[in-house]
Each structure stands twice: as structure tokens, then as C-alpha cells.
Amino acid sequence: MEEIPAHAAVLYHSFTSNVNNLQLTLEAAVFSSSHFPHRCRPAAPAVMRIFLLSGQSNMAGRGGVHHRRWDGVVPAECAPDPSILRLSAALAWEEAREPLHADIDTTKTCGVGPGMAFARAILPRLQPPGTAGVGLVPCAVGGTAIREWARGEHLYEQMVRRARAATECGEIEAVLWYQGESDAESDAETAAYQGNVERLIANIRADLGMPHLPFIQVALASGNKRNIEKVREAQLSINLLNVVTVDAIGLPLNEDNLHLTTEAQVKLGESLAQTYISNFLQATC
């Protein structure tokens, strides 16, 4: 009998069934491989570039949300593409579509975020052409403060768990992070913000075993929190290897003067894409 390769385990299950006194014996083989784990869809791209989307509501997406209802409008820049997948809350890969965070940020109404526009903007630049795809791992939850993303807290541990599951099907290329509005409500949280973000970056890199993992953060757009400018200053002051900041200042906001409009989310996604391409893409292809 031919030897089974070491990287595959084969389980044989035999069962019998009597149909009109006819004995049928069926044998099923189930293969598992370190290269093609069960969570990776057969139609998944041959090479998947994976990105974590994390933070709070503006990363989860509130574009097109008015009075707790999403208008359902999906711009062409955010349309589904078979080469763009998302990791669901159940840790299964599926075709990505808006709202990306619908099964993650479950207590809020999600709309358009920056993730799809980002993915569609980088897709044509990925190598090898035609076989590389994008895997998005939504983790953002609206209304969360940086302390809730500390190591040991539920949101942080869930993000790491999802990231590890995603690596069964590809390599993590970067973390996209948009958070800080909640910390602008408190003087104490604002004062501790820069140190807390720097700790978050160090923890993610350590726990994923990726000491140089790119981290692209978004500096807050204008809003109605009293310490917005101080949080922005903290964000813009972070000076760590492979940490780059995209400034959202001036992007259009919804009527709540806090959340980005759909148009703004598209622009932000494209800005994040350009930042990734300019700073990191050549090094990973």
C-alpha cells in the first residue's frame, strides 16, 4: 500500500446500510493538511494577504447609518469581489461584503467601514497577479476604550484568537486600527492613551510572534469629545518601528459629528491602502 504523506492524516469511516436486502459498504476518507485546513474554502485565493481590522465604531463602520438604521447603500469601491474574503464570527472564511462587522459588533447597527475600500484598492497590486487575494479579519467593537483592548481583556483575547485562526490560511500583513474617541471623554484616559496604544502594539506583536508586524493607525477625525485634540496628539506622537498613521482630520461626518459618512469611509479605506502600499507592500511581495 502506498505510504500516506506525513502532512496528511487520513481517517477511514466504514458503515453499512441495508437497502432492499442489498448490503452496501461505503468508505469515506477525510483528509486534513497543514497547508489546506478545513476553515479555508476550496475557492479561496492561492495566496491570501490577511489584515486585522480593529478598534471601535469608525473601524466597524457607521457609514450610511441614520437613526440606528443602515441605508443599505454600497458604493462601487466597496462592492464584493471573489478574491476578498472575511473571517466570520464563527471563524469561517466567506466572501466579504458590507457591513463587514455585522456579526462582530452585534449590539450596534453597522454600516460601511474602511475595510472593503481598502481591500479593493490593494487587490490589483498584490503578487502573484490573479492568484493573490485579501483576507479581512473584523474585530472592531463600537464604544470601546483602549483599556478594553489590554492583554487579558475579552476584546483583546478575541482579536488574538481570530488572528491565529486566520493564519491557518495565509499570513497577516498588517493591523488596521481606528480607536480613541471613547478615551477622549476622560482626562485620565487621555493622559494614558499613548502608552496604552504602544503596549497594545507590543502585546499583539509578541502574542502573534511577529515582532515587526505593521500597525497602521488612524488619527481621529474632528468630533464632539472634549479631549479629541489631545488624543490626536498622542496618536501622532507614537514613533515605533513599522507604525504608520493615517490622519482622518477633515473627513465628512454623519449628523452625530462623530462617525464617518460612507463617502468618508471610502476615502479612508483608499488612504489606508495607499499607506500600506507605500510603506509595506514591496517588502512583502
Automatic annotation (TrEMBL):
InterPro entries per UniProt: Carb_Esterase_6, SASA, SGNH_hydro_sf
One Gene Ontology molecular-function label: hydrolase activity
Domain (Sialate O-acetylesterase): residue spans on this chain: 48-277
Keyword tags: Hydrolase
Highest taxon in the source lineage: Eukaryota
One Pfam family here: SASA
Entry protein name: Sialate O-acetylesterase domain-containing protein
Species annotation: Triticum turgidum subsp. durum (Durum wheat)
